[in-house]
Amino acid sequence: MANIAADALYEVAYRSTWGAADGPIGHLVIRRLDDHEIVAEVPATSEEEARDLIDRAETQVRGDASAFESEWGIAGELVADPGPDVVRLGNLNEPARDRSTGVRVTEIDERFTIFPEIRDVFAADQQWLAQALHPLISVRLSAVEPGMHGVAHFLSPVDDELLLQRPPAGEHSDYMVENWLIFQTDHQGHFRYLGDPDALQLGDLSSVEYEQAQAELAGAKTRWERYGRLLWGDANDPAKPREGWGDDIAFIDQLGGEPGYGNWAGYPPPQALSLDTGDPVSPVLTTADGKPLLFIGATAGYPWRDAGADAILLFVEPESGLVALTFDWS
Q1: Measured at the alpha carbon of residue 107, what is the angle toward residues 102 and 112, in degrees to the nearest 5?
Q2: Tens-digit pLDDT profile for residues 84-133
Q3: Helices marked H in the chain — which ranges?
Q4: Whole-angstrom distance, CA of residue 192 vs CA of residue 129
């Protein structure tokens, strides 16, 4: 291990919980590159501490892997719980293969639309969904599979709790279950939610929380328009970048490839879908009748807003236009 660079094995990121009433303002998160599982998660109680954690981790990840693991307690007390019911099945005696990790998108071209218009994302009679699900970035399917037509959208839920409450038994069970959102897309790329629309009403979200989420998204859009980058927002003025927090932030952390395992795989999909965990490297999502869904990619819900999922995973079944969004949490 001494001759292996840490950045060949690990990646570092920062997950903000800015605005929380108490507790840390965020966490430094270290993931393995081969399966993107979190192996260390370190809280920060102030911006100064957060910057120090980020600076140290980004410097040390370019050094020796053994020293990096020792410094950050990897495989020690800082190892994070991978999440509920994450399983690794399959024949463990089979030779290991490398997971296809796609590409990191840091530049925008005609294949992507940042902060797409609501009218271009949701069906005409479901435009109100934008109150509960913020559109972040739209992706032409040809960016993942050349020659494929259509578009899909990364959406960030305003209220995480909406995703983590199971719907009433038997109610829209084909398309509605904890931590999954299922849509039908038309030939123009509009999403129609197939679950119970009442489940996405923001009845438990206070007006202050909702307005804060809206302001954070508006600030991120303003920063994009001013600087052409995805930047952390200043705590007092979301239209300004947060000083000292860098600008090497991906619009999409992983485009294409295979999703790999994470705690998202511990949430069984609704009955319209099936998740095959027989491969030890990456699960495969299919429709109930066996048609594979194309993995579009994954990206964090932050810093589009100050809080969000650690990964928003987007899948599409091109023939039927069925779309699945699921979420990874640390």
Answers
A1: 80
A2: 333 333 333 444 567 888 999 999 999 999 999 999 999 999 999 998 99
A3: 47-60, 65-71, 118-121, 207-227
A4: 9
pLDDT band at 137, cuts 50/70/90? very high
Nearest-angstrom CA–CA distance, 209 and 159: 9
236: CB partners within 8 A, 6+ apart:
none
Task: Return the DSSP state at 190.
Answer: -
- What gap in Å lies between CA 330 and CA 41, rounded to an integer? 8
Residue where the block lists tokens 């995480």: 160
Is residue 155 within 8 A of residue 135, CB to CB? The reply is yes
CA angle 139–142–144, rounded 5-degree value: 75
State pLDDT tens for residues 169-188.
545 568 988 899 999 999 88
CA dist., res. 9 & res. 202, Å (int)? 40
Query: Is the link from the previous residue into 303 a cis peptide, with omega within 30 of 0?
Result: yes
**Contact residues for 169 (Cβ-Cβ < 8 A; gap 6+):** none
> How far is the C-alpha of 85 from the C-alpha of 163, rounded, in Å?
17
- Average pLDDT on 179-199 reads 91
Cβ atoms of 316 and 185 closer than 8 Å: yes
Distance CA 4, CA 23 (A): 36
**179 near 264, Cβ under 8 Å?**
yes
Instruction: Check residue 96 and give its pLDDT.
Output: 56
Integer Cα distance of 322 and 301 in angstroms:
22
Strand partners of residue 317: 322
CB atoms under 10 Å from CB of 197, counted, come to 14
